[in-house]
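Notes from the 1:1 (GR / supervisor)

We went over the backlog. Supervisor wanted to see one worked example end to end before approving the batch request, so GR pasted a single chain during the call. The sequence is below; no edits were made to it. Supervisor asked that the structure be written out right there so they could see what the output format looks like.
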Amino acid sequence: MQHQQESAHLGYQINQIILNACDDQTRLREIAQILGEAFQVDWCTIIVMTSPQHTSAQAVGHWCANRDITLPLQPLLLSLQQLTLAYAESQKFAFDNVQATPAQELTVQLPLEVGAILGVPLWYDGKISGVVSFLRAQPHCWSEEEIESALAVATSVAIAIAQITQNRLIASLQQQVETSAQYQTLINQITMASRSSLDLNQIFQLALSRTAQALKIERGFIITLKYTDLRFKVRQQQNKVPKATATVACEWQCSNSEVNNYIRTRQFSISESWLCQQALLNFPQPIVINNQEDLSQLNLAQETHPIFDFQAWPALAMLPLENQGMVLGFIVLQHSCPHPWQADELALLELVGTQVSTAIIQSQTLRQVQSLVDERTAQLQRSLEVQAKLYEKTRQQIDQLRQLNQLKDEFVSTMNHELRTPLTSMSLAIRMLRQPGISAERQAKYLDILEQQCSQEINLINDLLKLQELESHKALLNVESVNLTAQLQNIARSFEDKWTEKGLTFVVDMPKTPLVLQTDAESLNRILQELLTNAGKYSEPNSRIDIQVRHYNDQIVLQIKNRGSGISAEDVAHIFDKFRRGKGVTQQAIQGTGLGLALVKCLVQHINGAIAVSSTTSDGSSEVCFKLTLPLTFDQAQT
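Structure output shown during the call:
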């Protein structure tokens, strides 16, 4: 491949797939296809990994050049993930002849159909997020150009994987919100039924059926207890099983269940059921059985009562219904298949159990019910408030993710424009230069275009690298004495010449005594260049740009003011954010990437300074003021 052009074109195609594909699987498959065709390999595979601790793939995109060539996919995916973890700190792994590579170097067993492999681990947010791999059926010597191209397109693939991760996170959060709302509706329904109905059986049936349906459980029943000693409380006698009669007060079964054996014996003694005894002894903890393996660990051979029927219903959750230390009964849910009970399911069951317990007390005595209902209602209200806060927080997180997604789209669009426009101009200039008989004057013109656009691309990349270097605190400092007076005057003169056509004048107001400060001269010069460039861009034609410098104690305060369209209050808060440009800038055809002011802020912090911006409107025009505060003496301890 022609390295730079092909890599840029592939990046553009990947960006289009990210924006237009309907689902994550389609995105990965289409990206794998265009990469496989571009690199002319037999297979191309992209794997999204959950985390280094989990070797299972979250999503896979696989492309095959020849459908007649079969390749065992699952062993390949496992081997690729192991290779990715093994070479996580490297930029790539490449094997020209897989079968001839020593086992201690390859570390994994790849399928015999693979002759050569080139893989690039993908990183996102400081973690391994996946891998893109190119495979050939025959041994192949991977060239430096192929490796460089693979590394170049890996960034675009990593962006695609980040998009997939964000989509899945949003879907997960939405599912949590829907589940929380469903649970909250269920609790509200049971609460309303408890307040409006004195029929305990109706409350039991509603609570049991709606809970089982919400949790997709096949069978449930409620057991009430009647003690011989009415004063018995489990909390006071934890190691003693009381004498009590159990009654199956309510039963529910899913109509689609394959098992339809209803409970025949409605009453029995606690002494007849070993599981009921254990539930009392383990109070207040619920009894949870997920599968046959859990059953084998319990001594259920002592269970002689057929009510639970573990042969037909091996999964069980049994929660005590309790009031003031007295177990009033149990709510039991069962499933005909193994079912891993989740914490949120048990939490919902506990809330439902609270309401059912309240209903039982309500039916026993009308005097006690009023105080108990108030207490339980208060508990429920606090629980609902917590759920409401969680719901609101989740909603805010979703909104934030949507905003981040929008910023990402704006960034991709901006970078797409800033990268493609110079490349288009360069491509056109190259084609014109190749025309026969072109004059020397036109050759010089097109060479100037090439040089200008190439410089623009290089400056953009350098700005991105410089910004990343500053944000990671890896930038070096070269502190020296700088004559700010002379530097400002020189820069102002150069900018006045630069903006002559626009009619801008630069007025410098500063003390007559030269101002000398200790700082990084290169960083300070870049700050001033960016601020004056920004002022020139957004100033009204034939207006004045004021540069004012004042010396206060051990600080220098520099203000740059210009008149123009101004900055909205919303944009002021984000003016120094990366890739953030004010509203209407694109419509006004003002060039820029949104990196300049972000770079200024990082550079100001780099030299221990501070910067702020304000925008005021008067007489139909707005004045924008950037205020830069710099220390006279650079303190290394503050860096």
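Supervisor's comment: Residues 100 and 139 are 9 Å apart (CA to CA).
Batch request approved.
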